[in-house]
Structures are given as structure tokens and as C-alpha cells.
Amino acid sequence: MTTSKSPGRPAKRTMWDIASHFYADAVADMAVHPGVRDQLREPQRVLNVSFPVKMDDGSVRMFTGWRVHHNIVRGPAKGGIRYAPGLTLEDVQGLAMMMTWKTAVVGLPFGGAKGGVACDPHRLSHDELERITRRYTLEIIPLLGPERDIPAPDMGTDERVMAWIMDTYSLVKGYSVPAVVTGKPVAVGGSHGRRRATGRGVVFVLRELAERVGLDLRGARVAVHGFGKVGSTVAYMLYHVLGSRVVAVCDSRGGVYHPDGLDILDLQRYKAETGSVVGFPGGEAVSSPEMLTVPCDVLVPASVECVITEENADRVQARVIVEAANAPLTPEADHILRERGVAVVPDVLANAGGVTVSYFEWVQDLQSFFWTEEEVTQQLKRVMTRAFDRVYTLASEANVSLRTAAYRLAISRVATAYELRGFYP
Ligand code: NAD
What we know:
Elements: E1 3-4, E2 12-13, H1 15-27, H2 34-41, E3 45-54, E4 60-71, E5 77-84, H3 89-105, E6 111-118, H4 126-140, E7 149-153, H5 159-173, H6 197-213, E8 221-225, H7 229-241, E9 245-251, E10 254-257, H8 264-274, E11 284-286, H9 288-291, E12 298-301, E13 320-322, H10 331-339, E14 343-345, H11 347-350, H12 353-367, H13 373-398, H14 402-421
Parallel strand pairs: 5-6, 5-7, 8-9, 8-12, 12-13, 13-14
Antiparallel strand pairs: 1-2, 3-4, 4-6, 9-10, 10-11
């Protein structure tokens, strides 16, 4: 088991460790061919790149990046590109494995991939970020292509970065290839509705779960951990469309709490002006860790990984958790919450709305025929609702958690693809 340790603190689980743990847990009771079982435990392909970039002050700095294909038996590799300080190959491998299950659980014809560069995008100028992106694209270009590997944004990257990747790839090819990345600006082949897709998908699955467990979302108390692209969309939809009381939100600097609910439209304006939710006058200050344990019915972790661990899982008061972020619960926390009867919609299902609309973007680019936002949202709802229903039914029939059911469904789809394609040579 791989962990990274700092003195005096419990060992921190890596993304690879978490993904491998949940995989091993789910596959243990499945009749999967031993060869397939072993194959899925490892990434299929790993590309490690180091490259020099000229900085604004004239110096040259070396950067390290990766592109990992965890599995491509069901279709081209699909997964985001993360720019984060301290990013490791283990993180990228773990996230790539989660993408294999994510695309399979919602039934998209893709495999799982992830990439990234160890860098802090907040400390780089616009020009430095562009040079890093273009050079990184050139380094991983042997893997890329609309039929091979289609990157997308992840933490630290955005539409602008995707436009640079598309441009660099297209310059090498000699013609425009919009389908090589998703999450692009609409003006260069992006899809309407991509930016809000993950948050919308989270709300679609929450609605399905709430109906089944008898939770009325109108007036329900919801806490949202993280107020970025995903968290702010979730908070907005719950507040504005479904009439829930969003009692707490936070970002990396701190949080805000009001037991009767926050005015999310005011809060969005406040954040746009100040850059943070901290100091919002419509509620009292709470720290980001405290926010996870406030009285609420629904908790939506939408920030970073491992925010709920064995140290605070006992104090979580929500009866429903929807994992908008990737791996917000450690396996230990997952176990504690399961024992306590808290329903957890796992990341591989809950946040699959983003990759689903990425799939729609890829389809639109390949056909050069573009959909309206209404069409995109309608199709997204169909895919998410169907996937949730399948996972919920499997979980009820086998009396297992939604996570185990989602993993079993995904693993069985990948294993079936192996069996049908056969082992070559
Ligand atoms: P983002 O960068 O837009 O927002 C992240 C938010 O989390 C910010 O408000 C940030 O301040 C906050 N945050 C960071 N560290 C924190 C900490 N330690 N405590 C509290 N808050 C903290 O990112 P995003 O795109 O909204 O992604 C959020 C999560 O959702 C990530 O785990 C990401 O991998 C996952 N995800 C995103 C998408 C997508 O389409 N954007 C798709 C699938 C999964």
C-alpha cells in the first residue's frame, strides 16, 4: 500500500492507494477472469515527460508531467489534465483509474486516462502557462488524437488551456482538430453546458437519491464544501431551482454558515467581488474543516480529495453525501459512514456529468453539428438518471453500498469488453 507520511500526522492516502483500495474491495466478490483482474490493477500505459520552459525573467525551468492511460479496452482514453504543485505520478494514476470506472458506469464509449504537470498555475504568468501547456502537449502528442486520447480540464486548467492544447495539436497536424480536447471555449468547438455539467449532474443524482430515501429537497439543509466551478453550480441549483437551504459553503480560505440558509445569489456576487466567500455578511464565519460537521441533511464535498477521514467521519451530521469531488472520502471514512447508515453517492457516478458532456462535445466536434444548451442538459439528465437507477437497483438487490454497486457495474462492463475482444496474441 502506498502512502506518503509527514511526522506526527496519520499517513496521507494517495489517489492511487484510494482507487486501488475501492477497486480491490469491489472486485473481490466478482467472477472476473484473473488475467483481467490483474490487468485492471495496473495502468495500461504511462508516459513520463520532463521538459524545459523559458520563464518571463529569461531563466529556464524544468517541469515534470505525465499522461496515463489506465485502460482503453472500451474506447479512446478520456480524462482531464491537472496542474497542481506537488502533483505526483501516483495521483495521476489513481485519477486515471477512476476515469475508467466513471466512463463505464455511465456507459460512455471511452477508456480512462489522466494527465498533469507538477506546477502551481497561480504562481505562473499567462505567457508562462501558455508555454508550459504547449510544450507539455508536444511531449505527450504521441498519445493524443480524437480516436486515441482526448484530454479535458481538471483542477488548475480551464477552457483557455484546452484551446492552447487544441491549437498546438492542430498546428502539428496542419489542420484544425477540435475533437482532440473537450472543455474548449464554445467559439472553437466547445459545447454549450460543459461548464456547469458536473454540478448539474451532481444535482440530478441527488434528486434521484432524495426521492428514494424520502428526503424532500425543498427546505432541506445542504452544506457544500468548495465553491469553485462545481460547488457554486450545485449551491446555485439547490438554492435557486430546488428551494433547498444551503446552510454552509466554504473555499480554501474559510467558510460561512447560517442555519436558515445563505442567499447564494448574493454570495456569488460577493465572491466575484472579493475572490472568496470569507467575510460574507449573510452568515457567521466557520473554518473549512468545521463546515463538514455542521447540522445538515445533505453534504456535498466539492473541493479536494481526502477532506473526510477517520478523524472527522464520526462527526458528519448529514444523512446523505454526494461526492462531487474526486475521492473526498478516504476508505476509512467511507467504512465509518457506511456503518452509520449514511448514503454516499460515489464520485465515479456523482461527478460523471462533466465527462458525459465532454462526450457530447466530442460527438458534436466529430459531426460538426452543434446542440443547444437545452439539448445538452436534457441528454445529460437522461444519462445520469439512467446510471443512478442502475446503480441503486444493483445496490438494493445485492445489499451493498452505492459505491460497491457502481464499481461492480463499471468493472463488469470493462471485463465484458475484454472477454468479447479476446486476449491477443
Ligand atoms: P475549482 O478549482 O473550480 O474549485 C475548487 C474549490 O475548492 C475552490 O472554491 C477552492 O477554493 C476550494 N478548495 C480548495 N482546497 C480547499 C480546501 N482545502 N478546503 C476547502 N476548500 C478548498 O475546481 P472544480 O472544477 O470545482 O473541481 C472541484 C472538485 O470536483 C475536484 O475534486 C475535481 O477533481 C472534481 N471534478 C471536477 C469536474 C469539473 O468538471 N470541473 C469534473 C469531475 C470532478
